[in-house]
Amino acid sequence: MKTPHWTTVRGIQGIVVGLAIAAVAVIPSLADTTVTQTINDGARTADLSTLTFDPLSYSNDEQISTGSMTLTADDNTGTGAGWNVTVQSTDFAYQGQYAGIDIPSANVSIVDPADPVLVSGQAITTQLGPFSGQGGSLETPRKIVFAIEGGGKGTYTQTLPVLLTIPGGSLVGTYTSTFMVTMSAGPGT
Fold it and tell me: How far from the centroid of its chain's Cα atoms is residue 93's Cα?
């Protein structure tokens, strides 16, 4: 027996409709998605290693005591604003048992600060720094190291030779001072 022709056409139509539905089902839906990444800022910090001068014997003459300390400057702010570090000293206060005289902060100096050394982060360049500042007495803030805008995005160390002039006749005992280190945004003046 022969199958009527219309059933074959109906079967083909069913296959065509089924394929059309399957094709529609695999077409992906197009939509834009926004993805966000936030980078939070860190801190800008600087600190000095402890400095202890070697003991000296009493003298009626002026004496010079030398030492060295290390400055660590760290800029993790992510701003690229540049920065500067200053150091200042208080007077060396007499701590002995007699009525002694303090050694003035004008008598302590940083002599020829060494070039900064990269610990981690952005490389040191001749265009952006960080750069070594000027040495000098510490009775006022002294700029020791700085980076200009776009530079200094990392951690750096610097060796600071220190000289203390002790007036002749300074009494026997201990003298103490506080060194204040400040790190500010911008290369400063």
Answer: 32
